[in-house]
Each structure stands twice: as C-alpha cells, then as structure tokens.
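Q: How would the structure tokens look for this protein?
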Amino acid sequence: MRILIAGLGNIFFGDDAFGVEVVRELMRRDPPPEAHVEDFGIRSYDLAYAMMDGYDATILVDAAQRGQPPGTLYLIQPDPAGAAEAPDAHSMNPEAALRMVKTLGGEPSRMLYLVACEPENVAPDDCQLGLSDSVQAAIPGAADMVEELVRDLLKENPIPAKGGETHAVLQQ
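A: Here is the predicted structure in token form.
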C-alpha cells in the first residue's frame, strides 16, 4: 500500500495555509514508510503528477468552506467524476488537482480522501500571513485524523470510497 498525503494551500492567504501546516506537523511525527507526506502548497502540476504516480490512496489536506464554525474538521471523499471542467493551473484546490490529473491523461488513486478545516479568514485580495486561532488549534486534531486514516488504510480496512460524501464533522 502506497499513500500520498498532500498539503494544499497558500501561506499568504491566512487560513488557506491549513493544509501546509498540517503536513508540517505530520512530518514531525515520523510517518510510516508507506506514506509519502509532501507540502504541495499551490503547485498544481506537481500535485497532479504525484497523484498519477501509482499511489493506492491519496489524502489531500486543505481548508474548505462548508458553512460550519471555524476550526471544524471534515473527512470528505471527493467525487473524482465531479471535476470535469477545464483545469486552472493558477488555482489550487482538490477539484482543480483532480481536473489536472484527468487533463494530463491520468486517473487519481482508487481511494481519495480530503481532510479539511473550516477557515475563519482566507484573504485572497491582500497578503495575510498566519492562521487564525481556531484553525491553528485544529492542526493537531487534523494530523490525528490523517494518522488514523493511514492506519485504517494500512490495515486494509479503509472507509469505502463512495465519492462526494462527508464522513465526519468534528468540532474543535
């Protein structure tokens, strides 16, 4: 079993850096050899090529606005079929990454997950470094969630991939 854990986000847009910070935490925790942990930031082409590199499962980590209180964590199974429009190489989010993989002629991992956090501040119009307190506090829980998912995948007891489904909403 080979697992890709990919942190997404722009460190200059406040809470959008959530995925980047979670993978930094995971790297400090010494992940198992079956898991490749990488900060992809806003590098959509690099992520797309990595996703086509024969991984059995991919876990994307990103901020996601879903209307819950800031700091809420989600485990989502994105629907790869829902990413049909043309990719934008300047926009990095799970849907854009899936579109890029398809545009390049590849297929994403057979098991695809998104560990996400409800952001408090995402400021695309002006530079804002640093996470809000609520999102910063969610990092250890998100790292725990990823580690638990990796353990389940390595036990060959994964959450069945159904696509487009949210499996857990955890309040911080």
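The first strand starts at residue 3 and ends at 8.

Residues 9 and 17 are 5 Å apart (CA to CA).

Upvote if useful.
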